[in-house]
Amino acid sequence: MQAVNPQFALTAANAAAVAGICRSLDGLPLALELAAVRSRVLAPAAMLSRLEHRLALLTGGARDLPARQRTMRETIAWSYDLLDPEHQTLFRRLSVFTGGCTLAAAESLLGGHADDVLDGIEVLVRNSLIQPAGTTEDESRYVMLRDHPGLRVRANRG
Question: Is 73 within a domain?
């Protein structure tokens, strides 16, 4: 944030909000950079409270960057558009899970062969459209970026 806002200083008063921003953005470097741009006009606590609508908030990347890196929405759209139609369909169908899903839940929803679903999930993870969200002793869990309702809107246009 200091690179964008030289007056910014991490303090005991704002550290929890800054940590909350980092958690809310899943530590994604581009998302953090776009949030830093907003630190010119928003205090960390105000920014954190607005992250419910993060795709609208995370705009305004550097003008010398490609368009796909100026907003989170365009980055996600670009990644989605690189997928083949089969993986785009998988991505759209996984969007029904709020809070993520296990591989078994995805297989159940999709009714596909376990290896096909696993391969599709691997492609989505590799393309940063879903993320592993931890593993229990029995199963892994996968989540979309936290703003999945906005992702569904874009995915349905594609």
Answer: no
What value, to the nearest 5°, has the Cα angle with vertex 138 and ends 105 and 24? 65
Residues β-bridged to residue 102: 141
pLDDT per residue as tens digits for the range 68-93:
555 666 777 778 888 999 899 899 88
pTM attached to this predicted model = 0.57
Neighbours of 5 (CB within 10 A): 15
Long-range contacts of 92-96 (CB under 8 A, 24+ apart): 92/152, 92/155, 92/156, 94/124, 94/130, 94/142, 94/144, 95/144, 95/148, 95/151, 95/152, 95/155
Whether residue 96 sits in one domain with residue 50: no
| Token pair recorded at residue 39 | 């630190």
List the CATH number of the domain containing 117. Answer: 1.10.10.10
In a domain, 75, yes or no: no
Residue 90 included in any domain: yes
Please give the residue range of the domain that contains residue 151. 83-157
